[in-house]
Amino acid sequence: MKELLEKTIPGVEFDSSDRDPPPRCHPGTRLAILKRCLSFILFCDGQKKMRWVVGAAGVGKSAVMQSVAEFPELPVSCHPSVFFSINGRNDGTKAIITISYQLAVKSKSYRQLIKREITLDPSLLRLSMAKQFLKLIIVSFIHNSELNSANHVLIIIDGLDECNDSCTQLELLRLISDLCIKHPSSPLEEIPVNSSEARADAERFLRTELTKIKEASKDPVDPRWPEEQDFWELTNASGGLFAYAHMAIRYIGDSTVRSPASQLSDVLNVIDNHPITNGPREEHPMALPDALYLQSSV
């Protein structure tokens, strides 16, 4: 196991201290998509084994996956996870071994099987990803009737676009897509940028966080702050894009700069002066967050 551990990506587990605090769904938000994902896990059968969660950058896919992984009554025996990040957790060549190690930690039968495989062929840990995927995941786990009948396992892979090498990223996609072809009818879960559900969730998040900022502020804040007109301008600009809502809240709540009212005024100025604000959010989902980032960097 130690030799296997040395070949893994440190810190990609959903509960790793390297990711603390991880992105997760704000309480009371994303309830519908979380319910659909959890229902799929609970009721998935031998045919529908995969679920793809897709959406524009910043819409909250990682937060949804984190919240699924943290669900206290998850109906699985183990749930290995790989949350890729450009912050040093992006070596895709180690993804298969990372998943294998996490499975081995939780499953005694799988651990014994993997130990035998590595003892018989020590070069297994140096083989290509395709060979490792075949030996460690397909043959040793998916096609192993003993393990399949005894365990209900969830594997979460998030942030594949943050792999440090495009060729590795494509290879992982090929391996997963080939598996999808062999196990058809994989449900597709799309998180739209500007759906009514996403907008309502962003509104709930913004209202809660602005209230927290007002209560925690050391500067005097008008009890009516923020004005409803200002709140709705911020909410409408955020749409259902949580990346923007989070960035705005961090900026407004930064007590090391100025008062929350002044910071909110800055954000509203960015919104008023940005040409994309009233345009199709789906075409340029990160345009407004980028503009706010430039403002906060000045």
UniProtKB/TrEMBL annotation:
The record's annotation in Gene3D superfamilies points to: P-loop containing nucleotide triphosphate hydrolases (3.40.50.300)
Q: Does the record's keyword annotation contain Repeat?
A: yes
- Chain intervals for the UniProt region annotation (Disordered): 1-23
List the keywords (alphabetical). Repeat
- Domain Nephrocystin 3-like N-terminal: residue ranges: 46-180
Q: Please give the SUPFAM superfamilies that the UniProt record associates with this protein.
A: P-loop containing nucleoside triphosphate hydrolases
InterPro entries associated with the record: NPHP3-like_N, P-loop_NTPase
Name the species this protein comes from.
Answer: Agaricus bisporus var. burnettii (strain JB137-S8 / ATCC MYA-4627 / FGSC 10392)
Q: What is the lineage of its organism?
A: Eukaryota, Fungi, Dikarya, Basidiomycota, Agaricomycotina
Q: What top-level branch of life does the organism fall under?
A: Eukaryota
Q: Does the keyword Transport apply?
A: no
The protein's name in its UniProt record: Nephrocystin 3-like N-terminal domain-containing protein
The cross-references to Pfam families, in alphabetical order and at most eight, read: NPHP3_N
